[in-house]
Amino acid sequence: MDGWRYQPPTAPWLSILYEDDDLVVIDKPGGLLSVPGRAADRQDSAFTRLAADRPALRVVHRLDMDTSGVILFAKSRPAERSLDRQFQARRIGKRYRARVWGHPPTRAGLIDLPLARSRREIRSHVSFSGGKAARTAYTVIERRSDSTAELDLRPQTGRSHQLRVHLKALGHPILGDRFYAPPDVIALAPQLMLHAQWLSAFQPTTGAPLDFTAPLPAAWRR
Predict the structure, then answer these.
(1) Whole-angstrom Cα distance, residue 113 to residue 136?
(2) How many other CB atoms are found less than 10 A from the CB of residue 127?
(3) How confident is the model over 46-79, as pLDDT tens digits?
(4) What is the C-alpha to C-alpha distance for residues 121 and 130, in angstroms, rounded to an integer?
(5) Catalytic residue IDs
(6) Which residues pair with 152 in a beta bridge?
(7) Of 147, 157, 59, which Cα lies nearest the Cα of 114?
(8) What is the distance in angstroms between the CA of the first residue and the CA of the last residue of the chain?
């Protein structure tokens, strides 16, 4: 979007949370693509930055460009297969933090709304005719005096833009969400206030449980 003002940092190049022979886990900054796009000016990404000295690197999952937080990559084909199976079996745990406009009426709940992808653009929308099942559990962490709230989100499915569309449908768009929030809510934050805070998985070779936490970006502390 022409007016979008947040740019991914180049220093530090990437914040690596964990690395072994099978995988590498980073704290992706908001504004950085997970994988390169098609256009020449969209080649900078978490993947290309890591693959520069990890030639066998493979994509396992992605975060939206505007979303910050934990993302992992496989370093071999066997590791990729193991992690793919974990995602398919829903053995990968994920939790997000979001700051939204307004105060949800209940302390916790489940948003169960099917989603479909718009054909001519990257946005998704709620669709009861042809949409795919999508479920997001949420808990209110704090109701703030500035009419915003912080939520803990636990996606039970992995649809495109699921958390952003679900919260908009709930009537509580995410601050700084340039795709789904109204202009006054976009203006309340310098970037999308959605952060992949925690992820758990099993080490592809040993099966040992692993979990990773990414600290909230500086924008959250302002």
Answers:
(1) 9
(2) 14
(3) 999 999 999 999 999 999 999 999 999 999 999 9
(4) 17
(5) 64
(6) 97, 139
(7) 157
(8) 24
Structure tokens at 180: 């789904």
Other CB atoms within 10 Å distance of the CB of residue 58: 18
Strands (E) in 78-191, as ranges, are 93-101, 108-112, 115-117, 124-126, 135-143, 148-155
* Contact criterion met (CB below 8 Å) for 163 and 98: yes
To 5 degrees, how large is the angle CA 159–CA 144–CA 138?
25
Q: What DSSP character marks residue 41?
A: G
Please choose, from the candidates 202, 213, 210, 209, the residue with its C-alpha nearest in 3D space to the C-alpha of residue 85: 202
Give me 2's structure tokens. 């022409």
**Has residue 8 been placed in a domain?**
no
pLDDT in tens, 125-179: 999 998 999 999 999 999 999 999 999 999 999 999 999 999 999 999 999 999 9
Q: Residue 86 is inside which H or E element, if any?
A: helix 77-88
Peptide bond before 182: cis, by omega within 30 degrees of 0? no
- List, for residues 94-119, the tens digit of each pLDDT value: 999 999 999 998 999 999 999 998 77
155: domain CATH number is 3.30.2350.10
Q: Is the pTM of this model over 0.90?
A: yes
- Which residue range is the domain that position 93 belongs to? 15-217
Q: Which of 203, 200, 177, 179 is nearest to 190 (CA)?
A: 177
Is residue 72 in a domain?
A: yes
